[in-house]
Design brief:
de novo design (two linked rop proteins); mainly alpha
């Protein structure tokens, strides 16, 4: 299984890029705090998918990395909601990213189940 071929990897990578660009819009005083945390969490999702796929010889390791990616995706969702609710970004800016994060979460759960059943 090549991670580059997985739809969940492609979607999570694009989400991380979209978040990277959007975080430039938040007020400067929050760039390091919430901006940095959200950028790091969003990059962790595709990074953990890639690392998990590299450990194909160990199903347990693969699943652990995919679960870590799922946890990072939940962290992204939280920080996006917080950014919206704190007034750092508008609901219109955040809504598509929240939707994409939900899709990524569902795809990760499906991939975990698929790997577990092998």
């Amino acid at each position: 299984m090549r991670y580059q071929d997985l739809n969940v990897y492609k979607r999570s990578y694009k989400l991380a890029l979209d978040i990277f660009v959007l975080m430039k819009k938040i007020p400067r005083e929050y760039q390091y705090d919430i901006g940095n945390q959200l950028r790091r969490a969003s990059r962790a999702v595709p990074a953990n998918i890639a690392e998990g796929c590299a450990r194909q010889k160990s199903e347990k390791d693969t699943i652990n990395f995919l679960r870590t990616a799922l946890g990072s995706n939940d962290e992204v969702f939280f920080h996006l909601e917080f950014s919206r609710d704190a007034g750092l970004l508008s609901a219109n800016e955040i809504a598509p990213l929240l939707g994409e994060s939900e899709v990524v979460g569902k795809q990760l759960n499906a991939l975990i189940k698929r790997v577990s059943s092998n």
